[in-house]
Amino acid sequence: MPSPKIQLEIRPTKKSAVKIEVCYADANGATRIAIELDEGATLGQALDASRIRERLAFDRESLSFGIFGKRSALDALLREGDRVEIYRPLIVDPMEARRRRVEKKRADGAQREKKVD
User: Is the pLDDT of residue 9 over 80?
Assistant: First the structure.
């Protein structure tokens, strides 16, 4: 008796989507754009899909990027719920800014003491 033939039907599987958010902040406020991409999408693809470059007119080469505060490359894979962040270059070194604040506070305190005497 011949064995029954088994037919397998192979269908392309539909990729599931991941929802992510692209964020950028500057002195004028924050911009947050929620988008949905295919599973396996990269940080660079998220930037392109969000069209944030056209909205804010920034140069990709002068900025750095991350996912939830951790610097990441443009080819980093995204997961559901990730927040892609765009980091601007620092204008002032944070340590230098702190040193200036402390010096100003000390100078202001010294001037107040002179006025009290």
Answer: no
